[in-house]
Design a protein that fits this description.
The chain has ten helices and 16 strands. The protein is an alpha/beta fold and 309 residues long. The radius of gyration is 19 Å and the shape is globular.
Length: 309
């Protein structure tokens, strides 16, 4: 399953807002449509956003647009995921934007399988693994980072079970991760976000593996709720791993300087189209949080497992 494909000089994306009810594709033939797809979370997940952005730049090039302007507008689509900025700059500085985007597309698939190869070493036969949000094939071109680790362990016939946090308010764990794992016949159960600490206290979770949107000095930025999972894991001595490509690293920056995206409050006010709070309720809706390095057991990359920076 490819989240992103290049067809007839158009970018083809799985519309992730429709899963699990429908498998719909969206086609972008200019960079502005790519920006909308990123903002509206038709495409989401740091690696996927990066590759989509690279093709947005390629479309700008093919359509004769001002590349500098396109770069700045694409970068503004979502402020937190470092892969977006990395991808845009890489294409902007290349001699052939489309060729560079296609190269990044292929690299993403190879990178994720390498992450899976190294990461499955930390998964033991019989483990129950918790993951938060969706860091699977849908967050990348294919295969996934955190779910890539789980896929690799499953492919080695390790007897594993997966627990997915629902990941409110947009439900990426419930809608996307559960769906992906079911497609691959990997045993999976869904829990409320607030249940992971209790299950750890009961000895029912052996490892935690999540993805990342940015890794810098001092920690990791990932989907909101990740820090609470990390604190519970620390309390109950459950190893907590982050799986991410090296393109997610911003080694010269402090993680605490990250701009955390604040999303529309209606994502919290409404659930399944129904309002769940009094009308006019004020909302704080950060899309991400920061997990400090001391809560992280290791970071699984395409070059191996490393210590937090």
């Amino acid at each position: 399953m490819k989240t992103i494909e290049w067809e007839n000089n158009k970018l083809k994306l799985i519309n992730q807002t429709k899963i699990p009810d429908e498998l719909e594709y969206v086609y972008c033939d200019n960079y502005n449509e790519v920006i909308v797809a990123i903002k509206d979370m038709i495409v989401r997940g740091a690696p996927a956003i990066g590759v989509a952005a690279s093709f947005g730049m390629a479309l700008a090039y093919l359509n004769g647009e001002d590349m500098g302007r396109a770069a700045e507008e694409i970068k503004s689509a979502r402020p937190t995921a470092i892969n977006l900025f990395w991808a845009v700059d890489r294409v902007l500085n290349s001699d052939n934007p489309l060729e560079e985007a296609l190269k990044m597309y292929c690299e993403d698939m190879d990178t994720n399988r390498a992450i899976g190869k190294y990461g499955c070493e930390i998964i033991d036969d019989g483990d129950t693994v918790l993951t938060h949000c969706n860091a699977g094939a849908l967050a990348c071109v294919d295969y996934g980072t955190a779910l890539g680790v789980i896929r690799a362990a499953h492919s080695q016939s390790k007897n594993i079970n997966v627990i997915c946090d629902e990941t409110r308010p947009r439900g990426q764990g419930a809608r996307l991760s559960v769906w992906e794992l079911q497609q691959d016949n990997i045993p999976v159960k869904l829990i409320p976000d607030v249940a992971s600490g209790f299950l750890m206290s009961q000895g029912k979770i052996d490892k935690v593996v999540i993805g990342a949107d940015r890794i810098a000095k001092g920690g990791v930025v990932n989907k909101i709720g990740s820090f609470m999972v990390a604190m519970a894991a620390k309390q109950h001595d459950v190893p907590f791993y982050v799986a991410a490509p090296l393109s997610t690293f911003d080694k010269d920056a402090s993680i605490f300087d990250t701009v955390i995206e604040e999303r529309d409050g209606d994502e919290v006010r409404y659930y399944g189209g129904a309002r769940i709070c009094p009308e006019g309720t004020e909302v704080i809706n950060p899309a991400f949080d920061i997990t400090p390095s001391e809560f992280i057991t290791g970071i699984i990359t395409e070059n191996g497992i490393i210590d937090p920076i």
